[in-house]
Design goal:
Largest sheet: 6 strands, mixed
Structural class: alpha/beta
CATH superfamily of the largest domain: von Willebrand factor, type A domain
Radius of gyration: 32 Å
Order of helices and strands: HHEEEEEEEEEEEEHEEHEEHHEHEEH
Shape: elongated
CATH architecture of the largest domain: 3-Layer(aba) Sandwich
Strand content: 25-35%
Distance between the termini: 62 Å
CATH topology of the largest domain: Rossmann fold
Number of strands: 19
Number of domains: 4
């Protein structure tokens, strides 16, 4: 048993022996030991009281290759000084802190960073960290473990912080127009086309109200001026909606695992398409046959074009892993009847089984445009009437080599 656990018994024994034998020195030593041990115990109990630990992240999202800076603020809000204090923080291995020593942690793909200091009464200490975002993903920083002790170092005090910080590393993107899509605007023109597809954000003019017009069409200012109900006329549009679908299957046999290169190609291409669509003012959505972290539903984001829609899609893509919860053809079949008329479906895939080809043909048959992007190096051999099947594998290889060896 450590000496620190015997201090009370030892001090009482010294006092009793000293008093019984008339040895005042022993009794004094026992009293001093009792006082020192009691003070140390009280110090230990108060050591981490009113000690606060804060992480301050100005930004919690970044792209691969960027850095995230944050600050740790450690404050002792009491008159009792801390001669020694240690903080051990848990970091993801793929987003390690820079310029500090790290050690492997028991948790999978995690590392520890340990820093020690002393805090006087009412002192605040600030540490600055910089995280290198090496790989896309959804990560967690923390929790932190704080240790201290009494002034003699006899009795340790420990506390586990419960607060953690989630950070998202977006996937990298590549220029979409350079991959050989069939036209400069592969998803159609924003203006022109059939009047059946109309863009409510582009007003072409006004006309008299007709029975059956939606109340949203009525221009109340023009109605007040003219004295009769006036309906807005919108410009036609052939590509108001785009759905990016990702088939995460990389091997025909699911028990064979997955190909990490093909998986990353699909995520990168989907992120690039979403960014391109956003820049072209398309309304874009996402569908993938895997689930969000700690959820059991497939990744599905309805089409939209508000300012925060693209970050939401990129955040979902950052979380994509190799574990599928459904086939992409089943998900597309469920979405078929809810897709707005004229939606362009862009499928990013490594495999094209017959069941998926049949689903794509049904989507095309009901009037939607379908484009297939294969991320394999080989040219696809399948042919679908009215559906272009394009290979982007060789194109993606160039960016993979630039990332590995430098441009």
């Amino acid at each position: 048993m450590p000496l620190r656990d015997l201090w009370l018994g030892a001090s009482l024994l010294l006092i009793l022996v000293g008093l019984a034998s008339g040895q005042g020195t022993l009794a004094v030593m026992g009293v001093l030991l009792l006082l020192a041990g009691g003070a140390a115990r009280i110090w230990q109990r108060l050591a981490l009281e009113r000690v606060t630990y804060q992480r301050i992240f100005p930004e919690t999202r970044a792209f691969v290759g960027e850095k995230l800076s944050f600050t740790v603020r450690l404050t002792n809000r009491k008159p009792l000084p801390l001669p020694w204090l240690e903080v051990r923080e848990l970091f993801p291995q793929d987003v390690p802190p820079q310029d500090v020593r790290v050690v492997a942690a028991p948790t999978t793909r995690s590392v520890y960073v340990t820093k020690s200091t002393a805090l006087s009464w009412y002192e605040r200490l600030t540490w600055h960290f910089e995280l290198q975002c090496q790989k896309r993903g959804y990560y967690r920083v923390g929790p932190a473990h704080i240790s201290s002790s009494d002034i003699f170092g006899l009795f340790p005090a420990e506390r586990q912080e419960t607060e953690v910080q989630n950070i998202v590393v977006f996937p990298k993107t590549v220029p979409v127009p350079d991959i050989g899509l069939p036209s400069q605007r592969p998803f159609g023109e924003r203006r022109g086309g059939s009047r059946i597809y109309q863009d409510p954000l582009r007003i072409a003019g006004l006309r008299d109200y007709e029975p059956g017009d939606s109340m949203r069409r009525i221009d109340w200012k023009a109605t007040a001026r003219r004295g009769t109900l006036q309906s807005r006329v919108y410009e036609p549009s052939s590509t108001l909606q785009m759905l990016i679908a990702i088939n995460l299957t990389t091997f025909e046999q699911t028990w064979a695992g997955y190909d990490p290169i093909l998986l990353e190609r699909m995520v990168t291409m989907a992120a690039s398409l979403a960014t391109y669509a956003n820049e072209e003012s398309h309304s874009v959505g996402l569908l993938a046959n895997c689930s969000f972290p700690e959820a059991d539903r497939p990744i599905k984001i309805a089409a939209g074009r508000h300012p925060q829609h693209l970050p939401r899609i990129l955040e979902a893509l950052a979380t994509i892993g190799p574990f599928m919860i459904s086939s992409i053809e089943d998900l597309l079949q469920k979405e078929l009847h809810s897709l707005p008329l004229g939606t362009t479906v862009v499928l990013v895939t490594a495999l094209l089984p017959e069941s998926l080809l049949a689903t794509l043909a049904r989507i095309r048959a009901v009037g939607h445009q379908v484009i297939v992007l294969s991320v394999r190096d080989e040219e696809p051999t399948q042919v679908l009437k009215g559906i272009p099947i394009l290979s982007v594998g060789t194109y993606m290889q160039r960016f993979e080599m630039e990332q590995t060896y430098g441009s």
